[in-house]
Amino acid sequence: MKKFKITIGDKNYEITAERDTADPSLLSLTVDGKIHNVQIEEEEAPKSSPGPRPAAPSRHGSSASGSIVAQIPGTVLAVNVSVRDSVNVGDKLMVLEAMKMENVITAGASGSVQAVHVTVSDKVVAGQLMMEIA
Question: If we measure between CA atoms, which residue out of 107, 76, 103, 113 comes closest to residue 93?
Answer without folding.
Answer: 107
